[in-house]
Amino acid sequence: MAKATIKQVAAEAGVSTATISRVLNSSGYVSREVKQRVMAAVTKLHYQPNAIARSLKQDKSFTIGVVLPDISNPFFMTICRGIEDIVQEQGYHLLFCSSDEKPEKEEQLLHLMVEKRVDAIVLATTGGNEELITRLAASGVCFILVDRRLELELSESGAVVDLVAEDDVYGAYELTKQLILAGHSVIGVINGCMGVSTGQDRFVGYLKAIHEAGLEHDPALLYDGHFTEAGGRAAVRYFLQMAKPPSALLSFNNKMTFGALVELTESGRDIPGDIAIASYGEIEAARLLKHSGIMYVDQKPYDLGIKAGQTVLHRLEKGLDKSLDRDAASPEPEPIRDILQPALKTLPS
Amino acid sequence: MAKATIKQVAAEAGVSTATISRVLNSSGYVSREVKQRVMAAVTKLHYQPNAIARSLKQDKSFTIGVVLPDISNPFFMTICRGIEDIVQEQGYHLLFCSSDEKPEKEEQLLHLMVEKRVDAIVLATTGGNEELITRLAASGVCFILVDRRLELELSESGAVVDLVAEDDVYGAYELTKQLILAGHSVIGVINGCMGVSTGQDRFVGYLKAIHEAGLEHDPALLYDGHFTEAGGRAAVRYFLQMAKPPSALLSFNNKMTFGALVELTESGRDIPGDIAIASYGEIEAARLLKHSGIMYVDQKPYDLGIKAGQTVLHRLEKGLDKSLDRDAASPEPEPIRDILQPALKTLPS
Q1: Phi then psi for B49, rounded to 5 degrees?
Q2: Percent of chain A with pLDDT over 90
Q3: Nearest to A71 among B77, B107, B289 (CB)
Q4: Are the beta carbons of B268 and B278 closer than 8 angstroms?
Q5: Per-residue pLDDT tens digits for B124-145
Q6: What distance in Å separates the CA atoms of residue B74 and residue A70, rounded to the nearest whole number?
Q7: pLDDT digit string, tens, across residues A224-254
Q8: Which pairs with CB-CB distance under 8 Å and at least 24 residues apart come from B148-154?
Q9: Number of cross-chain residue pairs from A and B with Cβ atoms under 8 Å apart
Q10: Which residues 155-184 of A are in CB contact (within 8 Å) with B?
Q11: Is the pLDDT of residue A56 over 90?
């Protein structure tokens, strides 16, 4: 099929070519009815002005790509809500996709986002793609990491990768300390993914607190729950079959905690009568338990999203040229590091 | 900046142009390390082969757009999981976006998806965009509606819009009937959005069941919860302040039910001792309540997603040309209507 011209599209839609431009560039007022006619004509004639041609001209696609490890986790979806509430005021749309905690899938999705010419990528990384991320960032892709940092030291790569995250070491340290102060010395740990920074940092915070209290870490009291609900359930089954089960469980994310609570409920255990619970991250569902006394790190995913959205806008509006072909005399842009301090809360007991 | 050629990209990456093609067309084996080098070179030189050029050649972008009303609702995210599990085997990626139950936002997102040249759009519509959807579908956009159908009759438009949904009238009818059989005649209804088909159909199913039982619908026993958790909480506050509160609550989606359960728990009510609960849709969190006896319509969002994914592949693989410029002598393709029959379940009491 021959390539359609803007004139043919205008004729099909029964409007002027100026109107077509207005609709496609989202500039100036066009009624909803006319907009719909124009888009139908564009589609029917396979007219391609288009995403790429326009973004070349404007150098913007007004789309932000968001690559997350788990779209079924309300923590990440609340981050998205925060990002969107900030960027949509400036006309940006979000496109999400889910890596399912798989580095290979994350790699494919990062390529897809570059292909779709998103203006920026907000990424909560699965880990394992440091080299790709560094290369893409050094080549000019605008990356904002959220919740999880990279492993590698980027300083020599010329890459600028911003980060909005929490101080996970501090949060886990405080949470563990509270459990110890409450009298628990045999604590079962439901550990997260050690391949990502939040998994590592929470474990480090726990170790710091128990060593400070003069306790030893017992490997038999560590169960790898992989940040999933099923992992939390399996951990509870593991701890309950021990000759001397722990008096408290310390779970390193919300999904594992929910799984643990379901398993404890179904096995007839009382919380905290039979076993106390401490959770890195709030569990909405725990509001259905009476007097559970659950201690938790009150993560602020909406605030993380707001900060990430503001960082995206800062980078895009400043037109900060991160690419390697910028003036060699200009200083390297400094990466933004925005680390939020989490607080502890306790449900009524 | 002059447009980069494939040769320049190959030189930058230190590979052959054939390798560049293999990477960009995802054909043939290329090591992960080389792939990363190629993508970094493509990005650095702003080379645009690319999404559009390749999709013109292949007539496919291998991307499916999914437009949902609420990305924080696990029901919709489980549908996505089902779709993705089917289509990713064939090399397709999903891009999600959220309309937040706002027709204006849905309209913008549908245009965005067309611009991004997705191969198909899976849509759970907010309602209110029937005309746009019909026009786009008639122009050749491959639409698969999931969970929610369109209001308008499409038969004369030439548009083919497939649908994968549940029989919501039947589900709500059966759920209401069970409440009545359990002895409830004063039932508080937490109603959903009447602007979308699921909201309407569930209300119709309820009316059918109460009329069949010789009961009257009392408008004072209807509270509009807008399919949100906050709506479910507000509904409970409304019903509890009545002179004669209902003996049972009937909630028309999972988020409203969760809100209702939290509000009842916080006000010290026992379920089902003080008030019985029936829910259209499963509440994962309700597993933390002991002996709640909650009746629910066991929706199968994963199955809906699987069916929707299969329908997408069927349309894309058959290369079914839905556009108006197909051979006029060929028969109109028939829209697919796949309506699943939901079943009731009850939590332990």
Answers
A1: -75, -35
A2: 64
A3: B77
A4: no
A5: 999 999 989 988 988 889 999 9
A6: 12
A7: 999 999 999 999 999 999 999 999 999 999 9
A8: B148/B124, B148/B196, B148/B197, B148/B198, B149/B197, B150/B125, B150/B197, B151/B127, B151/B197, B154/B335
A9: 157
A10: none
A11: no
Q: How many CB atoms are closer than 10 A to CB B113?
A: 25
How do beta strands A343-346 and A295-298 pair? antiparallel
Distance of alpha carbon B294 from alpha carbon B296, whole angstroms: 6
Fold of domain A61-166+302-341: Rossmann fold (3.40.50)
* A116, A140, A287: residue with CB nearest B262: A287
Between A13-27, A43-57, A189-203, B181-195, the lowest mean confidence (pLDDT) is in A43-57
Nearest CA distance, B261 vs chain A (angstrom):
7
Rg for chain A (alpha carbons), in Å? 25
Chain B residues touching A261 at Cβ < 8 A: 288
Q: Does A24 score more than 90 pLDDT? A: no
Task: Report the top-level CATH class of A6-49.
Answer: mainly alpha
Secondary structure letter of residue A3 according to DSSP: P
Separation CA A60–CA A47 (nearest Å): 20
Dist CA B187 CA B217 (whole Å): 9
> Residue A251 — left, alpha, or beta (φ > 0 → left; ψ -120 to 50 → alpha)?
beta
AA identity, residue B80: C
- C-alpha torsion sign, points A245, A249, A251, A254: positive
Residue type, A205: G
Query: Which pLDDT band, with edges at 50, 70 and 90, does A153 fall under?
Result: low
Interval A125-153 mean pLDDT: 89
> How far apart are the C-alpha atoms of A162 and A142, rounded to whole Å?
9
User: In a mutagenesis test of the B interface, which of A61, A79, A95 is the best target, namely the one with the most B β-carbons within 10 Å?
Assistant: A95
Q: How far apart are CA B24 and CA A137, in angstroms?
A: 19
For residue B147, the model assigns a pLDDT of 96
The whole-angstrom separation of Cα B74 and Cα A74 is 8
Q: Give me the CATH topology for the region B168-281.
A: Rossmann fold (3.40.50)
- Over residues B312-318, the mean pLDDT reads 88
**Contacts with B317 (C-beta within 8 Å, 6 or more apart), sequence order:** B90
Q: Residue A329: what pLDDT? A: 47
Kindly report, residue by residue over A70-123, the tens digit of the pLDDT: 888 889 999 999 999 999 888 898 999 999 999 999 999 999 999 888 999 999
Q: Cβ of A230 under 8 Å from any chain B Cβ?
A: no
Domain ranges of chain A: 6-49, 61-166+302-341, 168-281
Residues A270, A180: Cα–Cα separation, whole Å: 20
Is B6-49's fold the same as B61-166+302-341's? no
